[in-house]
Amino acid sequence: MTIRNAIALLFAASFAAADPGASFAPPQNYPNIGFTFPIFDHAKADPVPMPLAHTYVLVGDDGLTREDRFDPFELWYADQCCARWSDPQGNRLVLGRLTRQLPAFDTDFVSRENFADELNDDANRVDPKKQNDVNDWVATFVDFSVYKPERVKVNTFNLDDVFVYPCDAANTVVYAFRPRRIGNAKNFDWFCAIFRSADTPDPKTLRAFVEDRFLGRIETPRRGATDEGSEAGELNLHEREESHADYPGQSVRAAARKSIENYDSWWSAETEDYMILSDAGTVLGKTLIRNLKAQLPALHKACVRLLPPLAHDRDVSLVRVFQTRDDYVRYVGADQAWTAGVWMPGRRELVLSVGDSLEDLMRVIRHEAFHQYLSYAYCMIPAPPWLNEGHACLFENATVDGKGKVTIEEDTTRSALLLDNIAVATAFLPKLLEADYSGFYSGSAIERNFKYALAWGLAYYLQKGAPQERNTPFTDILPVFAEALAQTQSYEQATRQAFADVDMSVFQANFSEFWTKRRASAMQYDPLND
Asked: Do the Cβ atoms of 49 and 92 come closer than 8 Å?
């Protein structure tokens, strides 16, 4: 062994001994960021969630209009964050680009449009020559206190400046750095890197590790390779390429694309009404996407036909599909860990995990996609569980043929449960109509299954049974409810108004008779093409 090799091995061993439970993969280029750097071995992307929306419903001469407003910090963080990664050991890397300071607003929540106007004001531009601008940005971006930075000499061939920020967060180091411009190329922005170790290493050891393994390996890509590297793909859902320019929700689409743009394991797909984000790469995952392409637009039209929207605002419906259940649970949180898919109205996202059964997953998707539709259709004004959960269960059993025709099928499991308990179900109808969500979801699993079955049975009756009856006002219940909801913005008041002229004893008798004697005619009746 040569002396040079022995020194190299000794040097590597000294770093291995100080390794804080993490290792880095080989560097790769990130075209949307502009330089080459490594991330943790076996690291998984951790996209920034869509910001939490706060609904403002405006009443005008043309009816209802909904405006979503957001915490300015969430909008700013999503705009300034390049990417986040975590490895299986729990080590975490966050990379941000310093371009704009957080704008100041007089209100707690702002629209995307107002935020964009303020963000692009020259007063909020980070001046790369002013250290105070850099310091202020870093202090805003991190979620802990940082102190006066210290200049670091590292990788001076590829980095013009590097500063480390002492902080009060354990196992964490924070750096601001600026890559060196090559030739006549445009000057780089400043960047911020946050490293959080899963272990408890000595701070000096952690700094030495990061400065050697990460900062020391940053490079600008060779000429001709600047557009090659890690970035999200786009899946075309059409036979031919189509422009997305005329699709609704452009600001939301842009934010969704940006949230995954630097992850080569993620991709997006867009239609006129839907945008899908996913890291699913298995055969089952790809089959799921083909099914979504074929079914979601047709199901959306069916929802519009059965429960027309209160307003004419056009929204893009976001769908996020995770390949693994662990990533899904991490994203939706502990309260929703038991689900296979969930509509998150605050985030304006339908979130799913691929799972093992395509048939089961499509049933979940149809259920949750209805919740997504109704939230937008009713301007995010909550609908009562008897209507919302009832129709979501109705769409669970919808089928879509090759020509896009939707058929509402009977749920054989729920119909059997209803028929076995028809007297109890009929007597419970007034209680169901009065139930709020806590009451609807309360009780044992058997009680919840019964309430879901009854809500489904009520929706099925209103859509497929009542329209075939004569001399009853029951076909007006859903339209009257929608009109009352638009006026009162209270589902309790709207329910009372919808049933104000209904003789409940007659309604209960007709409901019972439908399920015991007239189901066969409903199976032949198509409310989507009556």
From this structure: no
Q: What residues of the chain score a pLDDT lower than 70?
A: 1-20, 183-185, 223-225, 235-244, 530
pLDDT at 358: 84
Report the candidate in 215, 260, 209 with the shortest Cα–Cα distance to residue 235. 260
Residue 149 lies in a domain: yes
Phi and psi angles of residue 138, each rounded to the nearest 5 degrees, phi first: -60, -45
Model confidence pLDDT, tens digit, residues 174-233: 999 999 987 666 789 999 999 999 987 788 999 999 999 999 999 988 766 677 788 888
- Residue 216 DSSP one-character state: G
Helix (H, G, I), strand (E, B) or coil at 27: coil
| Residue 451: closest CA among 361, 520, 389 | 389
Q: Which of 380, 404, 422 is the last residue of a domain?
A: 380
Please say which residue of 330, 357, 380 terminates a domain: 380
Domain that holds residue 161: 3-25+41-217
Give the closest residue to 462 by CA, choosing from 521, 522, 411: 522
| Residues 314 and 401 grouped into a single domain | no
Q: Which of 408, 391, 407, 348 is nearest to 482 (CA)?
A: 391
Residue 296 lies in a domain: yes
DSSP letter, residue 265? T
Q: What angle do CA 479, 271, 529 make, to 5 degrees?
A: 35
Is residue 69 assigned to a domain? yes
Predicted pLDDT of residue 528:
93
| pTM, to two decimals | 0.89
Whole-angstrom distance, CA of residue 292 vs CA of residue 299: 10
